[in-house]
Amino acid sequence: QPQLVESGGGLVQPGGSLRLSCAASGFTFSRYFMNWYRQAPGKSRELVAGITSAGDATHYAESVKGRFTITRDNAKNTVYLQMNSLKPEDTAVYYCNARAGYDYWGQGTQVTVSS
Fold it and tell me: How far apart are CA 19 and CA 69, in angstroms?
């Protein structure tokens, strides 16, 4: 059964960094485009970053460009989101998504940026 498990969230001060991980199982990870989404309280879910199945191209929301980096390790069936220079407005639940016709979602991990 397809499964995505996020980890690495937590509380961090403004300007700090976090690295999110998403471990995949139950499907052929290397064939899937992987995305990170986030949803803040009272707001709709938004796409933060995406990476192609081979890891040779990425895209980012304008709000995180230059601060966040998405990478993947197909040998470990894992996708990462390195988040630097965090701002209070980055506070949200972050979700991992796998897409290749089908959509799979993780349960989310909370990121809180606050002093």
Answer: 9
